[in-house]
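User: I'm writing a short methods note and want a consistent example. For Isopenicillin-N N-acyltransferase-like protein, I'll paste the sequence; you return only the structure tokens, no commentary, since I'll be parsing the reply automatically.
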Amino acid sequence: MTFPCFTSSQTDPRARGKELGTHLRKRIVANLTGYGELFAVAGATPEQVRAWGERALDRSAAWAPSLADEMAGIAAGAGLDPWQVAVVNARTEILAGIDAVGHGECSTSVVLPQDGPPRTVQTWDWHDHLRDAPMLWELEPRPGHVVRTFTEAGVLAKIGVNTAGLGVHFNILRHDADTAETGVPVHLIARRILDEAATVEQAADIARSAPVSASSVITAVTADDAASIEISPAGVAVIPPDPGGVLQHCNHFLDADLAAGERHATERPGTYDRLRHLHEHVEELSDPDLNARALAMLAHAPGAAPVCAHPDLTQPLNQRWETLATIGLDLPAGRLRVHQGGPCQVTEATWQTF
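Assistant:
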């Protein structure tokens, strides 16, 4: 099983978006429908969702006009209004506005060895009714600079790499400062980092420039550097690797100041168990073989930290979580290696190189 792939031929943002929207119209519309169901179960009205989408589009246009143009192009190709494409890009912001908190989510590990390229892996957990949303997208935002991203249909980026030698992992966070006054979508921050940054410092500067309303952590990685960039309306913090070159993150703030406003872990403390599991398996997560690193993430609840998630079908859809992908960055090649599903399904043959 593999994720669908799309390679853009257009370099103009609006034309690139329209090409994507035209080719993936059904998948984008289905993703929008799935998020509509999620927002409704969480308590949002259609009028609220539209207002949040329109505000996200305005904030995006002020911060990154070319990315707003690209969303408008996707809308044109998919037969949607631009605010509807902004909704799927701002899904983190809308969930923060609804004050929706879930127990699932992602676990990321990065190890910078003394010799050889970074050794990274993450699980990407999300709602099981959205399991058909992910896709792999290759684009060229400027001549000679290629971006490859694992994302959701209609969303401008998520986890990815660029040919400047930088990659990003992505985890959601929650903070007391999160607000319904929608800001720049965090997914657009990831995309702009992939489009523009070649260093961790440049990635952090881009994150600091965005007025946000919701929290996430983008872990930026280069050949010899890494940092978890914790983003919140309360500020941006940069977490470096430990002295051994290890950097791991789940779904709670590690910066002491931002942690004072922690929301996710106060209601769902399993994130601490997942990070503890990563800490306890550093040796395996340092393995040069991605398959071995993925298997080190294999842990199911309740006997261990639920790093590999499976949905409880007795729960409403906003409380059902599944590890939909396991992903590693191949920075020397500027490629992603992606497995569809959780670590418990990984074999040498299940990796998709993109």
